[in-house]
Design brief:
121 residues; mainly alpha; Muramoyl-pentapeptide Carboxypeptidase, domain 1; 40% helix; globular; Peptidoglycan-bd-like
Length: 121
């Protein structure tokens, strides 16, 4: 009888520890890696533009993993930035015009998990 109680207590402790019910850990918010401009400042950007909003778009585009190259976050909307923005637009079913506007900002901030459109060589 004594062994049975001991086994029950050990099993209960193991279950509690496995479920994480012992001591909850406080949630820690991850810092925003792209904070060049306010989250509400999302202007229309086109090839040739420069500044902090372009840096924000470049940084957000670098969240994409896998095949696409990382952009230099230099604030210059150059041909490399244009090509990557067009690719991201294609991946989300947007017109690949290279213009960063409302819908493109939205997909930069909430990218799809995967894209099956090959990145240009």
């Amino acid at each position: 009888m004594r062994k049975s109680r001991w086994a029950t207590v050990v099993a209960a402790l193991c279950t509690t520890a496995t479920l994480g019910l012992v001591v909850p850990h406080p949630a820690v918010a991850a810092p925003d890696p792209c904070s060049y401009v306010s989250p509400t400042h999302r202007p229309l950007l086109t090839y040739g533009d420069n500044g902090a909003a372009v840096q924000q778009a470049q940084c957000l585009s670098n969240v994409w993993g896998g095949e696409p190259p990382k952009l230099a976050v230099d604030g210059d909307f150059d041909s490399a930035t244009l090509e990557k923005i067009q690719w991201i637009q294609i991946c989300h079913g947007l017109p690949p015009n290279g213009v960063i506007e409302g819908r493109t900002w939205q997909v930069l901030e909430h990218p799809a998990l995967d894209c099956y459109h090959p990145y240009p060589p």
